[in-house]
Amino acid sequence: MEETFEHLDTRLSDLKDRLSTQEGESIRSQLHQLTQRLSDFYKLHPEYERLQRALETFKLRNKVAAGESLDHQLKEEEILLHYDDIFAHYPHMVGLENMSYDAVLDKINHVVSTSECEMIRARLSAKQEHIRSLDKVYRILQLKSMLVCEKYVASLIAVNSFWIRMDEMLVAAYRALNKIEAKQREETKY
């Protein structure tokens, strides 16, 4: 009991020292600022708020801070609190404990080596040269089709420019014909 009072007294004197160093502000405003900073911290890190509540619920605050080990009764309370989950998962935990990892690895290797995946991989490795030659032919065909497309676009441009020239020539011929007709009308007019 006396340790608790001494601990509180040291904490209180430490708090007074910290608060007295900040001149010009009242203790209430400083406490308000500290409370605000704590609530902001809890907003950023909600897991610390849950930890704080757990420490207060199980009355572990002073024991954890002092580095003492938890007593047997608190451990039993924690186990009883999660008894249903522990009981539900107990067979799985025993199975994991008793598992022979070498046997599991051997089984996995056996399944992989006898599976269809291994046969498919063997067939693919046997046809690797053929697949590479098909890939090479595909790339060549792709390049040739790109060249054909470029030539087609060039021929479209040439045809388009031809028709533009023809249109310009027809417009020029139409204007010239209109001039000639207009001249002939003027000559016949008199």
What does this structure look like?
89% of the residues lie in helices and 0% in strands. The protein is mainly alpha-helical and 190 residues long. The protein folds into 3 domains: 2-68, no CATH class; 71-99; 125-189. The longest helix is centred in the last third of the chain and has 62 residues, at 128-189. The termini are far apart. The model has no long low-confidence stretch (mean pLDDT 80).
Structural class of the helix and strand makeup? Answer: mainly alpha
Counting DSSP E segments of at least 2 residues, the number of strands comes to: 0
Main β-sheet: number of strands, strand sense, barrel status? none
State the low-pLDDT regions, or none: none
Task: Tell me the helix content.
Answer: over 70%
**Total domain units:** 3
Backbone CA Rg: 46 Å
| End-to-end CA span | 138 Å
- CA-based shape: elongated
Summed over residues and divided by their number, the pLDDT gives a mean of 80
